[in-house]
Write a structure and sequence with these properties.
- The strands form three sheets. Strands 2-11-14-13-12-15 form a six-stranded antiparallel beta barrel.
- The chain is an alpha+beta fold.
- The protein is built from three helices and 21 strands.
Length: 360
């Protein structure tokens, strides 16, 4: 135990004396102690020249349901957000008036059929009498004309009944395809017209981004231009490409419509949703540095780079030119190149030539 204590004391004495000699040497040399700093090695990254727009997402698989007849809503069978199969009833428009119309026409049709049968029998008799020479040809022709008119009248009404029965089918609004029912803005008792939007049925799947760019940008757009869909923090969540460019500028808004397909696995996006999108005009590689590494003085931008000098690291101040901010980084136009070790911490405490201890 005594020997262990002796060894510990000796080691402590040597360590203190060593540190004392290093401090003495640094002080004798007239150099300040090295300052610990964090550094990052600059890399050349792909930098986009882009413009951010608001894009509207539209589903190509969403059906808007509008009635083909007018009337009062009597029943609603589905509710918003419900998944329905093709042909499932969504709502019913009061069919009583149409049913009454069909019933009246069917009764009238029976009367016309009876008249037609009577005229047909009369025509048969007239044909026999004419063959026997009892009546004149004019009487036979009159009977034939009466029968033809009665038959045409009955056939016309029969066609009208078929049309009215087909019209009766439209009073039950059904889902055209399987999908999810959207908002149903109408209620039981509301009167609807053929222009009233009843609801939508969305089959899901990919959506399309509609982007409207100013007319003066029309000459710069091209097919397959990259487009990034951004989240609420401005970070890209997916990258797609322009597949449609409108052949003409909208006369009212003076904008040009572009479209891009947006994958929608898991129904992440909704129909008619508005999102931020970044249209990329061109891309190039350039060095980038964190905004925390850059300081401004007298209208100029500065950054410190850790350089090797005589086996030790020192901070060297450089005047730099920066471009846009991408995320949390400046695009460097001049003053820093890829491979430089840029200091990102304690920048306000540094001076040119100050010894530093880089920490990655």
């Amino acid at each position: 135990m005594i020997s262990l204590r002796i060894l510990f004391c000796c080691a402590t004495t040597l360590l203190v004396s060593g540190c004392s000699r290093q401090t003495t040497n640094a002080a004798a040399a007239g150099q300040p102690p090295a300052f610990p700093v964090k550094v990052v090695t600059v890399q050349a990254l792909l930098v986009p020249e882009a413009t951010e727009y608001l894009a509207t997402l539209k589903s190509r698989n969403a059906s808007a349901l509008q009635p083909q007849v007018e009337g009062e809503i009597t029943k609603i069978f589905a509710h918003s957000g419900e998944r329905v199969e093709a042909g499932a009833p969504i709502l019913e428009i009061d069919p009583k008036k149409q049913e009454a119309t069909v019933g009246t026409q069917e009764a009238t049709y029976k009367s016309k059929v009876a008249t037609m049968e009577y005229d047909r029998a009369d025509l048969d008799r007239k044909k026999q009498l004419y063959s026997a020479g009892v009546i004149a040809k004019a009487d036979l022709d009159a009977s034939q004309a009466a029968y033809d008119a009665a038959k045409a009248d009955a056939d016309s009404l029969s066609a009208s009944i078929r049309e009215q029965k087909e019209q009766l089918r439209y009073y039950m609004v059904k889902a055209p395809t399987a999908g999810i029912v959207g908002d149903i803005p109408v209620r039981v008792g509301d009167r609807v017209a053929t222009t009233t939007l009843l609801t939508t049925v969305d089959r899901g799947g990919d959506v399309e981004a509609y982007i409207y760019v100013p007319a003066e940008k029309a000459s710069a757009v091209r097919m397959n231009m990259p487009l990034e869909i951004l989240d609420n923090d401005g970070k890209p969540v997916l990258r797609t490409a322009i597949f449609f460019i409108s052949p003409q500028v909208d006369a009212n808004s003076q904008t040009l419509l572009l479209k891009a397909r947006v994958p929608n696995a898991g129904r992440k996006f909704s129909n008619d949703q508005t999102v931020h999108a970044r249209l990329i005009w061109s891309e190039r590689k350039a060095p980038m540095v964190p905004v925390t590494a850059v300081s401004r003085l007298s209208g100029k931008m500065f950054a410190f780079v850790a350089e090797n000098q005589g086996g030790n690291a020192v901070a060297r101040q450089r005047v730099i030119q920066v471009g846009d901010v991408v995320g949390n980084d400046y695009v460097v136009l001049d003053g820093i190149k890829p491979g430089d070790r840029v200091i990102t911490s304690g920048v306000q405490m540094l001076v040119d030539g100050m010894p530093v201890v880089p920490q990655t």
